[in-house]
Write a structure and sequence with these properties.
1 helix; 65 residues; 86% helix
């Protein structure tokens, strides 16, 4: 079968199924990675928020006097 000939419906169906399977595996891997790093991301966001709030409080208290 040369490149110019149209593909059969079976070849297109197999291609679609493989694409769906690959997308499902990629989505599964992405959710596993997110589950692994989510606690660190939440903790890092909390630390950054607390540091920013402390900095804003110090600035406010120094500019008040």
């Amino acid at each position: 079968m040369s490149e110019n000939e149209p593909k059969s419906w079976f070849d297109r169906a197999i291609g679609a199924c493989m694409s769906i399977l690959l997308a499902a595996v990629a989505l599964y891997c992405a959710t596993q990675v997110l589950q692994a790093i989510l606690p660190f991301l939440i903790a890092a966001a909390g630390v950054v928020t607390l540091a920013w709030a402390g900095w804003a409080l110090v600035r406010y208290l120094r500019s008040r006097y």
